[in-house]
Specification:
globular, 7-stranded mixed β-sheet, mainly beta, 0% helix
Length: 124
């Protein structure tokens, strides 16, 4: 009953910026936490950032702290990931996810709803 639609991926040079968007629809009141994960070829899905629906708590992976910022447009129920100072190692498919209960924010297994994924490629 929750649908997530992503946008904003693309190709950018190292040092550049991208802003990812994730629009949530359906039974919005079920959402407890929204998060961003990424997965590079041959690697496990990696936690990037998470925020409670009330925006009371926000978490970031150490690899993106100071460069990425997660925010939410309450009126449009859209979550954003502002990515600055991008590095080639940030290249991955980025996924938006939502959980409807209080689980481990950094674990993909805690999230039942996922966006389609959007490719982010950072060139040197």
């Amino acid at each position: 009953q929750v649908q997530l639609v992503e946008s904003g991926g693309g190709l950018v040079q190292a040092g550049g910026s991208l802003r990812l968007s994730c629009a949530a629809s359906g039974f919005i009141s079920r959402i407890h936490t929204m998060a961003w994960f990424r997965q590079a070829p041959g690697k496990e899905r990696e936690f990037v950032s998470a925020s409670t629906w009330s925006n009371s708590d926000t978490y970031y992976a150490d690899s993106v702290k100071g460069r990425f910022t997660m925010s939410r447009d309450n009126a449009k129920t859209t979550v954003y990931l502002q990515m600055n100072s991008l590095k080639p190692e940030d290249t991955a498919v980025y996924y938006c996810a939502a959980q409807t209960y209080s689980g481990r924010t950094t674990s993909p297994d805690s999230y039942a709803y996922w966006g389609q994924g959007t490719q982010v490629t950072v060139s040197s």
